[in-house]
Amino acid sequence: MILFSFFGSLMIAGIVAFLFEKWGWTHNGIVPSIFIAWGAVLVFYFVRSLFNFSLGSAGLDAIVASAAALILIPTEYATHRRKRNRRDR
Fold first, then answer.
1. Beta-carbon contacts of residue 11 (< 8 Å; ≥ 6 apart)
2. 54 phi and psi, to 5 degrees?
3. How far from the centroid of its chain's Cα atoms is residue 6's Cα?
4. Long-range interactions of 75-79: CB distance < 8 A, separation 24+
5. pLDDT tens, 65-88?
6. Residues near 20 by Cβ (< 8 Å), separated by ≥ 6?
7. Alpha carbon 55 to chain centroid distance?
8. Model confidence over 14-54: pLDDT tens digits?
9. SS3 1
10. How far is CA 7 from each of CA 2, 42, 52, rounded to the nearest angstrom?
């Protein structure tokens, strides 16, 4: 049952990342967004397992963790900053 919830959480994170890209909330690209969401879900899943901290079901934790990571990680800003620094040189 543990593996089912783990891989289900990863699937939910991939779906959330795909939807965030399609709806225009993030502009990272589909693959980077999926990797960001997977990382967040992986960390939150281990926090849930180790410290028994949860917001509800594993699916709800996956949705919250992936959405928070996609919103909080400003990769688009970092890309613009890198382009600006190259232009200034």
1. none
2. -150, 150
3. 15
4. 75/26, 75/28, 75/32, 75/36, 76/26, 76/27, 76/28
5. 999 999 988 776 666 766 776 666
6. 26, 33, 67, 70
7. 16
8. 999 999 999 988 888 889 899 999 999 999 999 988 998 88
9. coil
10. 9, 10, 19
